[in-house]
From TrEMBL:
Record domain AMP-binding enzyme C-terminal: where: 544-626
Reactions the enzyme catalyzes: acetate + ATP + CoA = acetyl-CoA + AMP + diphosphate
UniProt keyword annotation of Acetylation present: yes
Family annotation (Pfam families): ACAS_N, AMP-binding, AMP-binding_C
E.C. no: 6.2.1.1
Name of the featured protein: Acetyl-coenzyme A synthetase
Post-translational modification N6-acetyllysine, affected residues: K626
Amino acid sequence: MSGIQSVLQETRVFNPSAEVQQAAAISGMASYKALCAQADADYSGFWGNLAREKLLWHKPFTEVLDESNAPFYRWFADGQLNASYNCLDANLINGNGDKTAIVFEADDGSVTNVSFRQLHERVCKLANGLKAQGIKKGDRVLIYIPMSVEGVVAMQACARIGATHSVVFGGFSAKSVQERVIDAGAVAIITADEQVRGGKTLPIKAIVDEAISMGGCEALKTVIVYRRTGNPINMQAGRDIWLHEVEGPQSAQCEPEWVDAEHPLFILYTSGSTGKPKGVQHSTGGYLLWAKTTMQWTFDAKPNDLFWCTADIGWITGHTYVCYGPTAAGITQLVFEGVPTYPNAGRFWQMIEKHKVTLFYTAPTAIRSLIKASETDPNVHPNKSDLSSLRILGSVGEPINPEAWMWYHKHVGGERCPIVDTFWQTETGGHMITPLPGATPLVPGSCTLPLPGIMAAIVDETGNDLPNGQGGVLVVKRPWPSMIRTIWGDPERFKKSYYPAELGGKLYLAGDGAIRDKDTGYFTIMGRIDDVLNVSGHRMGTMEIESALVAKSDLVAEAAVVGRPDDLTGEAIVAFVVLKRPRPTGDEARALAKELRDWVAKEIGPIAKPKDIRFGDNLPKTRSGKIMRRLLRAIAKGEAITQDVSTLENPAILEQLAENN
Ligand code: 6R9
């Protein structure tokens, strides 16, 4: 049995209950297929109608899609709108002014509610304040701020005046901030004095000071500081100013800057295949259209829902499903300052109960760590909280292994809530391949089918279509409105990375390997292309081996698998494993490694046996929780670590993982 086959042998299917299906906006597979058929029959009509239906246009567009300079596609290009107007004013016009836009829970558990009217006021004041600071349409503003109402206000205020924001996650180092300020040519930074997470205060403004002191930030004139803790910090006269002083004297009305649909709403830096992060540039019209539409389709968001996306606004998930999607759809959302493990690892479940969250969206890595925590401490198990308010669960960021999926389904969703496993990327702006909660039968570990209008396909290395059942390269055959427009300042890199000549130059290359089920056509993501291994001519996903390891649930908490060049077999499999018991050494480690190898051989086939197994107390992860596979590949090869590890949550475990068993 080949490796891929065993992932696809997942036979459990979960159909939407009659109740969920009836309530859903897209109800039943026939409705889903009808939408897909509309997009197939008249692609620009489909998107044009959606854009007219979902967004308020200051000036209507006359052309939907301009392909004349492909792959630099333009959507709704002669239309004009404003993103903040669509997220805020639209709710005042709809009579949602007094509705709560944001329920903010601070690290210490205190709660603040902000209505759409109050959010609108705050955004207008800051927008006027930014203009008073000389910031104008087209300027870039870097935002380096903890999870807060102010973070959302800052992003929306930039959008209101047509400034392009670039949010940098609060966990990034001074060097990363400096590089992004320089690359974006930012004129201002909006930041905070300190951030509060897990009961600790951490400097933020001091990191900005350090970043600027590294030099090269010539365009930068202003640093605006939100006072979060009030502890003393350095304020440089003539450059630094408090947020409340910027907002204070300003009017609560601000005429939005009407921008062309293609105007860059934001730049968000993400890692590429080289060391230098890519500034992914998104548009205003197409991006916002999909942020709002996917809120309604994927999460079936309704006026009475309380949505909670646990992602930080420093990531694309926080852009689309915290700042823009919920507000554009007029949905109340929870924004959380803290961490899932403070004051204990039951925090998420306690918050769902406290606020009666109905739609919950988080990452597999969080789920896995909370599984582990609840196994050692029954008091933090989700069954200690009343989670009956939940309607729909979501997963994002990496493949969710079937074991974690089943736990999420059973213990969080009460075997009642559909799980939407949403595949998408910083570059795609919003969901691409995902179940629809009221339509799609779910299969654990599969992100199922593309959303209507998303022409996802699987091709070989030269761009030829592959039949279902054959793994290959995930591509998107037609442009879609929320797609990346370019890499900021590097259009050539954009073309080469996403529309490579090898594939004929017309297919968007996602960078992931995937396979479609022979019968259902369901997509299963096999991880980044560089994570797909070829061992003795057999192609297999690292994720599949990880799933097999994690399926040994009495022993294994988490596993990451990478390839290492091997003279005999092409590539050899190296597994990094975190056990549910103290990290073993010596004979015990060797015995456990053998046990796991035999287990994998039994689960998948001898071909999938890891050649090498290393144990650690944890895996090297970015602060967003992504496993740093490039580091693991270097360790697997026995190379010295020369890469930047400043974004690593736990650098000490690199040494443990380098030890041979
Ligand atoms: C939204 C986000 C994108 C990469 C992507 C893929 C992986 C994301 C996934 C998934 C399997 C899912 N990924 N969602 N893999 N199933 N549901 O995470 O964006 O940070 O740019 O990462 O994450 O490998 O290519 P980003």
